[in-house]
Amino acid sequence: MIKLGVIGLGKFGTNILNTYKQLEREGLCKLVAICDINEKVLEEQTKKYNVKGYTDHKEMIEKEEFDGIAVATPDPFHKEPVIFAANKKIHVFVEKPLDISIDGCIEMIEECKKNNVLLQVDFHKRFDPFHIAIKKDIEQGRVGRIEYGSVHMEDKIVVPRDWFPNWAGKSSPVWFLGVHFFDLIRWLIKSNGKNVFAKGMKNKLKSMGIDTYDSVISIVEFENGALISFELSWILPENFESIVNQGFKLVGEKGIIECDSQDRGTRVFYEGYGVMTYNPIFINEVKGKCGEISYTGYGIESIADFVYNVKYIKNGYKIDDLKNGITAFGEDGLEVTKIGVAICKSIETGREIKI
Ligand SMILES: NC(=O)c1ccc[n+]([C@@H]2O[C@H](COP(=O)([O-])OP(=O)(O)OC[C@H]3O[C@@H](n4cnc5c(N)ncnc54)[C@H](O)[C@@H]3O)[C@@H](O)[C@H]2O)c1
Asked: I need a surface site. Which of 3, 168, 208, 297 has the fewest CB within 10 A?
């Protein structure tokens, strides 16, 4: 039985809790304890998930026994709980981005290596079945050498304005959204970022008292020569057809790939709602075997992957053995953060930056 904990119980921490509870029903793991500094959130979640709660992650880790812990605190606050858990020989699953500084990522990687624990990052776009199919095509050489491409990922304004206005100013479309696709593209084309040039705009959110970029446009040159542009923003209108507009194009010497990761082919129109599109393969609520609420989708598979990895390690596999799979490790988190940091530096200096 894998003993698990969760630190940070907000919007995405809830998806982690749902996944762990589901795997608990299947007999794979046990949710031992959870932690949030917000007492109200903690009270609601401990009641809902019928589990012990703490407001201090150190106290929780000292008092309870864990094989693995998930960290879903806001973007800039992943490092402290990760390092504390690693020092207690606990495997760690971290929400993206691993950290918003290169030094922070390196510190976490080294601490986990020293303690021989797994450091896994939640880059769930790797688990999207369309993206997996595209990766196979690229690996079979069908597209040829990738020469250029483009990515767009744009959230509705409700995300920074209403979901987490208290920490949106410490994040940006680069850290909250871009990291998903920096990882996906480097995973697909098997190459890391080399140089970047970027521009950003602060306007709409700043006028609402949230001091961060509305939008960031960047061109990343990868080590294999591919040139990919990334259009990132989180100011789409409230009545846009889905919470996120996202997709990408890759063009190689032998072919073109276009993937709309938002509009999966279903479009509905209801009175009072207007046109809406779905992405049910991300996280889909279904009825479980005994009528309970259950979840499917690549967003869930990515979270569950950590639990299976911990099980493999407990069964005698080495962390390096797992590197042949789909999992994103701390080192992937570092490469993604290097791109994010270089984009921020390029916006600040107005120059092309070496990653
Ligand atoms: N994988 C994805 O698609 C995805 C989507 C959304 C968010 N995220 C990531 O998940 C993380 C959390 O985002 P969210 O949207 O759930 O934010 P949120 O604001 O809804 O939740 C964060 C929670 O962490 C708690 N917290 C803050 N500091 C803490 C600490 N030191 N110890 C314990 N709890 C603490 C807060 O009280 C809050 O309840 C972020 O890194 C974000 O980028 C990932």
From this structure: 208
